[in-house]
Design brief:
With about 140 residues, this protein is mostly beta strands. It is built from 1 helix and 6 strands, in the order E-E-E-E-H-E-E. A 5-stranded mixed β-barrel has the order 1-3-4-6-5. A hairpin with a 5-residue loop joins strand 5 and strand 6. The longest helix has 10 residues. The radius of gyration is 25 Å and the shape is elongated.
Length: about 140
């Protein structure tokens, strides 16, 4: 089974592109702290490249930015390639299947996912008033 769960902060703003077939793809990286500290007391961090596709890609690009905390679940993909100098390289990517936004709500400029929706221009509906009910005390069963 190839399954990975990561919680970390975006290290840069997500980059949304489209394939030649018109499919949305979003690339971003997250920094994930390890659970332990080194001998000198420093906590180590791992950096993961993440790829999201289609609707998930659009959502991530629209509602996240550098520094936001996210939970990513997906699978690991290993790619082998040759760089410009002809050296064989290996890249490890996380292919996201689900992403949950964990950043606390903010009070920003209005274009942020966590901001309250704009008030509706429709007039407020009046709540119905309740009528009194004359109960003679009989139980119907």
């Amino acid at each position: 089974m190839n399954k990975v769960f990561l919680i970390g902060n975006l290290t840069r703003d997500p980059e949304l592109t489209e394939t030649s077939g018109g499919v949305s793809v979003c690339h971003f990286a997250i920094a994930v702290n390890r659970n332990y500290t080194s001998a000198d007391g420093e906590r180590q961090t791992d950096f993961f490249n993440v790829t999201a596709w289609r609707g998930l890609a659009d959502t991530v690009a629209r509602y996240t930015k550098k520094g936001h905390k996210v939970a990513v679940s997906g699978s690991v993909q290993i790619r082998n390639y040759e760089d410009n100098q002809g050296v064989k390289r290996t890249a490890v990517d996380v292919i996201a299947q689900d992403i949950e936004f964990l950043t606390a709500k903010s009070s920003g400029s209005g274009d942020d996912f966590y901001d309250a929706p704009a008030p509706s221009s429709a007039p407020a509906k009046k709540k119905p008033t309740l009528q009194s009910f004359d109960d003679d005390g009989d139980i119907p069963f």
